[in-house]
Amino acid sequence: MEPNRISKEEVKRRLDSRERVVLLDTRSVDAWGKADAQIPGSIRIPPDAVEQHLDEIPREGLIDTYCT
Fold this sequence. Notes:
By secondary structure, the chain is an alpha/beta fold. The chain contains two helices and three strands. It has helices at 8-16, 29-34; strands spanning 21-25, 43-44, 62-66.
């Protein structure tokens, strides 16, 4: 499956319509330490460790990754 880029407005629309959306925070550990916020309910996985954590990512619905 080829990844697609979607806007934050589209993610919000899907969340508001109660569609299943998994928010995957793939910022580095350093970026997490400097961040003053985390999207509630997001799953934090370092970008270089995604393959080791695949079993933690739900397979239903949209999976939206974000980083800085």
